[in-house]
Amino acid sequence: MKRISTLAFALLVVLAACSKASSVATNQPTTAGETASECAKNATFTTDGTLTIGTSNPAYSPFFQGGTTSGSDWKLNDPTTGKGFEDAVAYEIANRLGYSTSQVTWIPVKFDESYAPGPRPFDFNIQQVSYKPVRAKAVDFSTGYYISNQALVAVKGSPITKAKTLADLKPYKLAAPIGTTSYDFIADVIQPDGGPAPTQTEDDAVAAVNGGQVDGLIVDLPTALYMADPYVQQVKNSVVVGQFANPTGGTPPYWGVTLSKGSTLTSCVDLAIGEMKKDGTLDEITKTWLSDKTNVGTVPLIGP
Amino acid sequence: MSLAPPPEPPVAPDPSASNRSNRSKLVGSLRAEGRRGVFVAVLSTVVVIGGLIAIVINSPNWLTFKESFFSVQEFKESFPDIAHHFVHNIEIFLVLEPLILAFALLLAIMRSLKGPVFFPLRVLAIIYIDFFRGIPTLLLVYLFGFGIPALQIPGVPISGIFWGSVALSLSYSAYVAEVYRAGIESVHSSQTAAARSLGLTRWQTLRFVVVPQAVRRVVPPLMNDFISLQKDTALLSIVAGQFGEAFQQGQIWKASHFNFTPILGVALCFLVITVPMTRFTDHMLERQRRRRMAGAVL
């Protein structure tokens, strides 16, 4: 008995030592008053002298804008234009890390690829990834650069557009892409009678509404406004029926930049985003690329 | 061709005694060889499998990999939900398999019909089979699952899972039709000739002589296609809808937790039904082989 407990104790000590060692290795301490660019000098990069940023291809509006040129590998929008909300955020982070616009390289990164185990081929990845504690076990998250409400897009005049409360939405079929906060919102908060209708991609969710397979789709508000924009009408003849306030309690599902687990750059990106929040740059970018760009008036709130 | 006399059996001086001792010696050495064989088999298995495991475990990223693909906690959390959704996969292939078997047989018969009158039917069957065998099943499921509902034809179902299943059936029917056809062509033409000379019509010959023998011969390959269909129900994960197929559910868990373990859970569900089916098919093949060999001299 004694031997067992001694053994167990020894094991505990070893475990504790291990976990301590790993926490020291992963969380690079930031010295007080250090700037993002100072921090980045001590970080390691995928390619020296270049900041490699990953995002989805196609790069979706309104987070990326400015279109794409023929011959470019990028669909819908080319991130090198610097136009669009996340595009602007990414370049602002880059500049604060000490990288000029020309020192930034973009690579296409599939959502799944962004959290596969092991070092990733990018320095950081920005594609509307929302923070969850359990996700942070697999990747490093930066602090948030945006918190989005969820919103409902449906065809004008269809019965679902009369919904005023969450309970009104229960009988309907609602689509959302797998792995999004929107999907979780349908599954956990709205809880439709027939269950959620997941799709592989955002485009498939749009196709499902256009094909009449579902009654509506849930996406983050900026995307909803873009899809239903009178000049875009990604979903044919559509409106944003309403938005949902974030459920109270717990950490709101903010969007963060993701990095390889244990990246030396994580704390530097945090510093950069902190600086952007402090001097109002982030608010300005948000206003320029999200608030000012929408052609839809105020969106009603669908309450509980 | 010369008929050689059969080789003479070796003649022993005292057949009964020496034969017995020889046999026991032989059995003993066989046993020894058997024991050595087992030992070598065990040793080589340990070396090979152990070596593979060692390579995997000592890979530089093993710990991260383990956490990402073999997380016990993630498995416990997701597996009951995935297993629950796997029931839908079973339902789907149970419904689709009989439809495919019937439709494919029709196609195979169409393709095997002889005579100029049936030329258009033959051509139709060939075009159908070429077309549906030539397109990846995944693409068919996607095109049907999103394309046909988008037409919004009144009175036609708009469910993605419905049209995805139709695509799966159409694709598999093309493959299974070819299996049937191989069976039909393996029935010797003397069978048809005999049946026809007995006064059976062409149709009766097909119905009572050719098809029964053909189908019996192709049961094992049909089983293979059945196993394949069970696995390919996972392709339905790409269509939209509230159906909730197991792979899709696994992907939801994976994307929600950034952990790949749930996908292994889905794989496990499939193995639980496909491995027994595979063993059973092997068993049937073996039985068929023995039946064919019965009475034959090798």
* Rg over alpha carbons of chain A: 22 Å
Largest sheet of chain B, described in full? none
| Beta-strand residue percentage of chain A | 15-25%
Ends of chain B: how far apart? 19 Å
What's the helix-strand series of chain B? HHHHHHHHHHH
Query: Strand order of the main beta sheet of chain A, please?
Result: 7-6-8-5-9
**What is the overall pLDDT average of chain A?**
85
How many DSSP H or I helices of chain B? 11
- Quaternary form: heterodimer
Mean pLDDT level of chain B: 87
- Please give the number of β-strands of chain A: 10
The main sheet of chain A comes to: 5 strands, mixed
Number of strands of chain B: 0
What does this structure look like?
The complex is a heterodimer of chains A (304) and B (298). Chain A is an alpha/beta fold and 304 residues long. Chain A contains nine helices and ten strands. Chain A has helices at 2-26, 36-41, 85-96, 111-114, 181-190, 202-210, 221-227, 266-278, 281-291, and strands spanning 51-55, 104-108, 124-125, 139-146, 150-155, 174-177, 197-199, 216-220, 238-244, 255-260. In chain A, strands 7-6-8-5-9 form a five-stranded mixed sheet, with helices on both faces. In chain A, α3 links the parallel β1 (51-55) and β2 (104-108). Chain A starts with a helix and ends in a 13-residue tail after the last helix. Residues 1-27 of chain A have low confidence and may be disordered. Chain B has 298 residues and is mainly alpha-helical. Helices cover 79% and strands 0% of the residues of chain B. Chain B has eleven helices and no strands. Chain B has helices at 15-57, 62-69, 72-112, 119-134, 137-151, 160-186, 189-197, 202-217, 219-232, 246-257, 261-293. In chain B, α3 (72-112) packs antiparallel against α10 (246-257). The longest helix of chain B has 43 residues, at 15-57. Chain B is flat, with a radius of gyration of 28 Å. The two termini of chain B are 19 Å apart. The model of chain B has no long low-confidence stretch (mean pLDDT 87). Chain A binds chain B through residues 111-112, 115-118, 132, 134-135, 137-139, 173, 175, 178-180, 183-184, 192, 194-200, 204-205, 207-208, 210-214, 261, and chain B through 61, 64-65, 67-69, 146, 149-150, 152, 158-160, 237-238, 240-242, 244, 248, 251-252, 254-260.
